[in-house]
Amino acid sequence: MKKILSVSVLFLLFFSACKETTSLKIERDGEPDVLNVASENVAMNRAIEEANITLSNFKTAIQSNNKNYYGFTLKQKFKDADDN
Hints:
Keywords: Signal. By secondary structure, the protein is α+β, with helices and mostly antiparallel strands.
């Protein structure tokens, strides 16, 4: 349960960081919105660092087959052809 709480906190940090300096929001029908965040966004960079540190906890929770763990989500940073 502690792991689920940690992952939830990370997602809250992520979403609060996105609001700080979001430069572009792409809305897609039937899909989650895509938010582009400035690379110098301090809150986002802290959330990314914490997520990387705790990624092994996330993996362990997914692989545990614990029926109380569900609704996992993982976000990935992507760069386009222009290195954005």
